[in-house]
């Protein structure tokens, strides 16, 4: 059967304007969900409407706005594996570390089913996914790369945005570390690579490498 390029559906959660992504091939019935946020009902409805079954819940980092929907999605599809970077795993079960306590709505999620590190390959929903660690916004932040897509796709969480970069004033933040990670792990990707960020519109490696005012290539 022909392998078609993945499709990406964006679901924006209110309050923080956080992007959750549902990624799937239209000749398959499974998918991955990346960073299910606060509007988990909307996420579950969209996946159900698409008649998809999540194989995995991929988490870029453990801040509250990116994990708030994990428990609800896991309850709806218990077989979906929760995947997170090893150094951010504790944030899932600690409201202080995931910053939800600071915002007055302490939350936790089930613990991860799978911990990943830099260079690990994942295989979910017919997609080969490369994990790269890019700390600086969060010490265990990872990004997920689909290099086999045309153009390649990178789900970059809060590392880099269209015209901006992630905050580094949270605990575990480090701007120099973030900038180095952007240059070595993102700006070295093909310029046509699409960057799907945790907030705001998608952009490309080529555009940000040339125009991003915070980190130039």
UniProtKB/TrEMBL annotation:
It is an enzyme of class 3 (hydrolase). Its cofactor is Zn(2+). InterPro entries: MBL_Glyoxalase_II, Metallo-B-lactamas, RibonucZ/Hydroxyglut_hydro. GO terms for molecular function: hydroxyacylglutathione hydrolase activity; metal ion binding. Pfam families: Lactamase_B. Residues 197-217 are annotated as: Disordered. Residues 17-199 form the Metallo-beta-lactamase domain. SMART domains: Lactamase_B (SM00849). Keywords: Hydrolase, Metal-binding, Zinc. The keyword Nucleotide-binding does not apply. It comes from the Bacteria. Its EC number is 3.1.2.6. This is Hydroxyacylglutathione hydrolase. It comes from Thermogutta terrifontis. The lineage of its organism: Bacteria, Pseudomonadati, Planctomycetota, Planctomycetia, Pirellulales.
């Amino acid at each position: 059967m022909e392998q078609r390029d993945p499709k990406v559906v964006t679901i924006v959660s209110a309050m923080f304007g956080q992007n959750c992504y549902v990624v799937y091939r239209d000749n398959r019935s499974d998918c991955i969900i990346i960073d299910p946020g606060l509007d988990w009902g909307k996420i579950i409805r969209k996946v159900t409407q698409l008649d998809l079954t999540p194989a995995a819940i991929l988490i870029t980092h453990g801040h509250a706005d990116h994990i708030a929907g994990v428990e609800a999605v896991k309850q709806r599809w218990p077989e979906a594996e929760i995947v997170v970077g090893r150094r951010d795993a504790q944030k899932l079960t600690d409201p202080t570390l995931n910053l939800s306590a600071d915002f007055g709505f302490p939350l936790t999620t089930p613990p991860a089913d799978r911990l990943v590190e830099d260079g690990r390959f994942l295989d979910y929903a017919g997609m080969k996914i490369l994990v790269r660690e890019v700390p600086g916004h969060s010490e265990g932040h990872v990004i997920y790369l689909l290099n086999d897509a045309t153009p390649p796709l990178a789900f970059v969480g809060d590392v880099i945005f269209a015209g901006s970069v992630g905050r580094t004033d949270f605990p575990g933040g480090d701007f120099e570390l973030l900038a180095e990670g952007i240059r070595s792990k993102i700006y070295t990707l093909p310029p046509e690579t699409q960057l799907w960020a945790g907030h705001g519109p998608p952009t490309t490696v080529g555009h940000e490498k040339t125009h991003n005012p915070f980190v130039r290539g």
